[in-house]
Design a protein that fits this description.
about 600 residues, alpha/beta, seven-stranded antiparallel β-sheet, 19 helices, 27 strands, about 20% strand, globular, binds fructose -6-phosphate
Length: about 600
C-alpha cells in the first residue's frame, strides 16, 4: 500500500526520492509524486500510474536538496494525477504525503469549505494540508500538531514547508514512519526497504509521536510537545537482500530462498540437550509458560492460515487448547480477553492494520500478546509483549511464500517449547527436534519437484476453477494452496476440509475442474483416499500432493507430486512448497503480473 520517502541533505533530492519510491513499488500503488523544496518554493510533480509516468513529467534537472515522495494506493478518490500525493496547500507553501485514512475527512471538508477552502482533489489527505495551512504564526511542528488534533483515523505523514527549507516534519498514528540517519543527511520513510540503500541506522516513531528532521539530526516529541529521546536501531537486512538475484520474479526468488530462510528461523533456537526450543524473545519464564491455559492465534490471509497450523501444532505438542481467528473478526466482536490465554499475532510485515488493532485491543484489556513477525522493529513487533522474529529476510513479492513457511517454523518452535514445559516427553521432543533440523533438507527435496510441478501446472493452468482439499492438519495446507493460486493466477480456487466436499461443493466437480488434494501419510490417509474417489466418480481430475510409498494414490490421481515425509505436524511446511510452485507456474503460463497481482497490496495498512 502507500509509501513515503523523504530526504534532506546536500545531495539532489529528486533521484534519491525516485529510487526510494522504486523500492516501495512492491507494496502496490497506482499513482506517485514528489515535492521538492528549493529556494522558498515547493514544486510538486505527480502522475497517475507507474513510476515511469512520474519520471516522464519530471523536469530534466529538478532542483532541491529537500523533498518528500509518495506512492499512493487509492482509497479515497480514484487514482488520478490530482489525487496523487504530495498534496499542496492553496498558497503552494506546504506539501504533505500521507499514509492511512482520515476517517472524519467529510466533516472536516465541510467545515473547511465553510471557512472558504477550495479542494483540488477528492482525497482525505487534502484536509490535513488545509488544516496545517490555516495558521502560519507558529513553528511548523506546532502547526502540524494543531492540525492533527482535528484528525480522526490513522496517519503516517511527512510535511515540508517552503518557509522552513531546513526540515521535514513527520508524525505517526497507526501507520509507520521511520527516520534514517545518514552522514550530514537524513531520510524518512514508511518502510525500511526505501532506506537500507542509504543507511542501516534507523529510528522508529511510535504512535502519537512527531519529529522534526533536519540534515544533522532529529528531535522527537509527543503530540503535547513533550520531548522524547529515542536511540537508533540497526536494520538487520542488507540492501542487496532486496535484489531479484537475476530471477524473473521476486516470488520465484523467495520460493527458492526457503531452505536458507528456514535455517535462519531455526538458527540457535533448537536445544538438543533438553529437546526443546529456546525462544529468548518470548519474555515469559518457565512458570509463566506453565500458566498458559489457552492460545489464540491472530492474523490475516496467509498469516491466519499459518495460525490455523499453529493451533494444530500447539494442541498436538503442548495439549493446550488453541484456535486461530482472522484478526479483523476477532477485534470487532468484543472478544473475551483472559489473563491465562496467550495471544499470538502472526504477521510478515508487522504492519497489517487489522492484526495491529487486534494486538492493541488485547493489550488494552490486559492480555498478553506475542508477535511472530518478520520485519524487525515493525509496529506489531513493537506493540507485542514479546515474540519470535521469523528472520525470513525481506519478502518483496505480494504473495507470501518464505514468510509463510518461516512463520510455521516459528510456531513449531513455540509449540515445542510449550510442550516441553508440560508433558511432551523428552523422547517425543527429541524426535520433533530432529524433524525440525531435517526441514531444510526436506525443503530442498520439495524444491527439486519443480520440473514435474511445472509440467502439471501447464496441464491445468487454463482451468477456470480449482478445489483444494485436506483433512485435519492438511486443511490449512489446502487453504494456503488455494490462496496462492487465486492471488497470482486469478484462477478461482476454493479450499475445503476434505470431509466437507460431499456437503455441497461436490456439485461443482466436473472434468474441467481439478482438485488438489493434500495427502500426508498420517492417520487420516485412508479417509483422504476416499475423498479422491468421490472426486474421480464425478470425473474431476485429481492432483495429489503426498509422500512416496503408497500405490493407491498413484492409481487414483491424475498427477502425483511427492515430497519427503516428516513429522505429521510439519507436513504443512514441506507441502507448501510444491503448491507455491504450482501457483507460480500457472500464473507464469497465463502471463500474470506475478509480483504485484491486480488489486492486492503487500502490506494492508488500511481497513
Ligand atoms: C497472501 C498474503 C496475504 C498476507 C496478509 C497478512 O499471500 O500475502 O494474505 O498474508 O495480508 O499480511 P502480514 O503477514 O504482513 O500481516
Amino acid at each position: 500500500m502507500c509509501g513515503i520517502i523523504g530526504y534532506i541533505g546536500n545531495r539532489n533530492a529528486a533521484p534519491i526520492l525516485m529510487s526510494g519510491l522504486k523500492r516501495l513499488e512492491y507494496r502496490g500503488y497506482d499513482s506517485a509524486g514528489i515535492a521538492l523544496v528549493s529556494g522558498e518554493t515547493v514544486r510538486v510533480h505527480k502522475a497517475a500510474g507507474k513510476l515511469t509516468r512520474l519520471e516522464a513529467v519530471l523536469p530534466k534537472r529538478p532542483g532541491g536538496k529537500l523533498g518528500i515522495g509518495h506512492t499512493r494506493w487509492a482509497t479515497h478518490g480514484a487514482p488520478t494525477d490530482a489525487n496523487a500525493h504530495p498534496h499542496l496547500s492553496p498558497d503552494g507553501s506546504i506539501a504533505v504525503a500521507h499514509n492511512g485514512i482520515v476517517e472524519n475527512a467529510p466533516a472536516l471538508r465541510t467545515r473547511l469549505r465553510a471557512e472558504g477552502a477550495e479542494f483540488a482533489s477528492d482525497t482525505d489527505t487534502e484536509v490535513i494540508v488545509h488544516l496545517i495551512a490555516r495558521t502560519d504564526e507558529q513553528p511548523l511542528e506546532q502547526r502540524v500538531r494543531d492540525a492533527l488534533a482535528h484528525v480522526r483515523g490513522t496517519y503516517g505523514i511527512a510535511v515540508v514547508d517552503a518557509a522552513r527549507p531546513d526540515c521535514i516534519v513527520i508524525a505517526r498514528k497507526g501507520s509507520p514512519v521511520i527516520i534514517g540517519i545518514g552522514d550530514r543527511e537524513m531520510f524518512v520513510a514508511s518502510d525500511i526497504a526505501a532506506l537500507v540503500r542509504h543507511t542501516r541506522q534507523v529510528v522508529h516513531l511510535d504512535d502519537g509521536e512527531i519529529a522534526v528532521v533536519d540534515a544533522r539530526g532529529f528531535r522527537t516529541m509527543t503530540m503535547d510537545a513533550q520531548p522524547i529521546s529515542k536511540s537508533p536501531a540497526t536494520v538487520e537486512w542488507e540492501d542487496d537482500a532486496y535484489e531479484r538475484d537475476g530471477h524473473a520474479h521476486y516470488m520465484y526468488k523467495e520460493i527458492l530462498d526457503q531452505r536458507e530462510a528456514i535455517e535462519r528461523t531455526l538458527g540457535g533456537r533448537v536445544d538438543r540437550r533438553f529437546h526443546t526450543a529456546h525462544l529468548g524473545g518470548l519474555n515469559l519464564d518457565a512458570s509463566e509458560l506453565l500458566e498458559v491455559k489457552r492460545v489464540k492465534l491472530l492474523g490475516c490471509g496467509s498469516a491466519h492460515y499459518a495460525g490455523i497450523t499453529g493451533a494444530h501444532l500447539i494442541e498436538s505438542l503442548a495439549r493446550i487448547p488453541a484456535s486461530a481467528e482472522p484478526a479483523a473478526e476477532f477485534r470487532y466482536r468484543n472478544p473475551v480477553i483472559e489473563r491465562d490465554t496467550l495471544y499470538v499475532a502472526v504477521s510478515q510485515s508487522g504492519e497489517t492494520i487489522d492484526t495491529l488493532m487486534a494486538v492493541q485491543e488485547v493489550r488494552r484489556c490486559g492480555g498478553r500478546v506475542l508477535g511472530i513477525v518478520n520485519v524487525v522493529g515493525s509496529s506489531i513487533a513493537r506493540e507485542a509483549d514479546g515474540g519470535i522474529y521469523m528472520h525470513a529476510g525481506p519478502e518483496v513479492a505480494v504473495a507470501s511464500t518464505k514468510a509463510y513457511t518461516c512463520s510455521l517454523v516459528a510456531l513449531a518452535l513455540l509449540a515445542l517449547q510449550l510442550g516441553r514445559s508440560r508433558d511432551l516427553s523428552p523422547e517425543r521432543g527429541r524426535q520433533f527436534v530432529e524433524a525440525m533440523e531435517r526441514l531444510p533438507a526436506d525443503i530442498a527435496a520439495a524444491l527439486a519437484t519443480e520440473a514435474h510441478v511445472k509440467a502439471v501446472a501447464l496441464r491445468y493452468a487454463h482451468c477456470t476453477s480449482a478445489f483444494y482439499i485436506g483433512r485435519g492438519p492438511a486443511f490449512p495446507i489446502a487453504l494456503e494452496g488455494a490462496q496462492k493460486l487465486k492471488e497470482i493466477s486469478y484462477i478461482h480456487a476454493e479450499a475445503y476440509p476434505a470431509s466437507e466436499l460431499k456437503h455441497g461443493p461436490l456439485a461443482l466437480i466436473e472434468p474441467g475442474v481439478p482438485t488438489v488434494v493434500a495427502l500426508p501419510h498420517d492417520a487420516l490417509l485412508d479417509k483422504s483416499i476416499a475423498s479422491i474417489e468421490e472426486v474421480r466418480a464425478r470425473h474431476g481430475p485429481v492432483i495429489a500432493v503426498t509422500h512416496p510409498g503408497d500405490e493407491r494414490i498413484a492409481e487414483r490421481a491424475d498427477a502425483v507430486i511427492e515430497v519427503p515425509r516428516t513429522e505429521d505436524m510439519l507436513n504443512p511446511v514441506v507441502m507448501a512448497i510444491p503448491l507455491q510452485l504450482f501457483a507460480y507456474h500457472c500464473a507464469l503460463a497465463l502471463g500474470r503480473h506475478i509480483d504485484q497481482p491486480r488489486n492486492l497490496a503487500k502490506s494492508v495498512t488500511v481497513e
